[in-house]
Amino acid sequence: MDMSALYQRRTAEFLKEIRPYAHYAFQGASMAAIVFFLLFSIAYRLFLQWVTPEFPWQPLCAAVLFLALASGRVRTYLQEADTLFLLPQERGMSIYLQTATRRAIMFQLAVTIAAWLLVWPLYGRMTQADGIVFVVLLAVLLLLKWALLNGKWTELQLQEPGTRRGFILLRWLFAALASYALMALKLPYGILTAGAGAILYLAVLRLPHKYTVHWTLLIEMERRHKASIYRLLNWFVDVPQVQGKARGIPLPGLLRRMIPFRQRSSYHYLHTLVWLRSELLGISVRLAVVGIILIVWIQNDWAAAIVYALFGLFAALQLSDLKRYYREHIWHRIYPIPEGMLKHSTGAVRFRIHLAVLLLMAVPLCFSLPNPLWAAGLLLLGVAVSWLYHRFR
Fold this sequence. Notes:
Blueprint: H1 3-50, H2 57-70, H3 82-85, H4 93-127, H5 131-157, H6 161-184, H7 187-204, H8 215-233, H9 253-258, H10 266-277, H11 279-297, H12 301-319, H13 331-334, H14 341-368, H15 372-392
Helix pairs in contact: 1-4, 1-12, 2-4, 2-6, 4-5, 5-6, 5-7, 6-7, 10-14, 11-12, 11-14, 12-14, 12-15, 14-15
């Protein structure tokens, strides 16, 4: 059996499995990430202009590098059935696991480079370091990350849970020590301290007893990794694999009166319940709250208006998930519902929810913009676009 090809196939299968949800998540997060990046860039530039050598910049830089060095995952995609079908080839699993660790190392090295690029402007300003120092410290950080990721993999093969917990603590302590030494000590001493710690750390990793393949732990860790990805995607779209608690939220009296007990209101009632009792309620609330916080925090008029528009767009895109409910249902045959009512009712429910989100975000916008009439104009424009979107989409 080609173990490397098996790993590649399982990676492709997992990506195919999450692709439908990742599409919605990308729609909801891409523009937010762009806005956050722009706002962070502006704030970081202002911070660099303000910061002085008296500011405790060393712990700040060390904390960013520490998070990049100490964290990291190794995706193995192992399954429960592997204990039956792959266990006889345990000795040959080295190729499979080497493929997994090699991919993890490449990804984690990229994360370390990104963290160093983030830290470098502050470090370079405070120390007046040149490009040679940038390259040297980057090489040291990459070597440290390689050592720590090997330590992470060794932890997963340890036989005793207590020993594993001790080595996890050791890895985090070493990452903190190395990060602070590189930032706080002068260049040669910081590198020597981190290097000596790495050599000692790698030597200690050889002491405990290890499994050839710790099947039980690796399968459990893979289950947790997969669940964490689905929980992340569940922030943006309702993911069936996430087993949330059923919400028995009673309809408030006002909302109940807004949905008359008539034939033409059937889907209004059903889709309102879907929104209240699914993850779409949490997504809508989170988008509204984050949008309000950003509008209040941002001091620039144009930026506040852009945030309002973007989060209104995100809310509309996420609410479009309501249309996948009740597409095909037996009630179509046993209950006399006119044709076209499903599409009309779904759009109407989405529009009303979206209108509530737009109204909530418009309240702080009235105080953020110089003239409240501008906020009212943006609200009316948003309502018009929302009506068109939910009417014909």
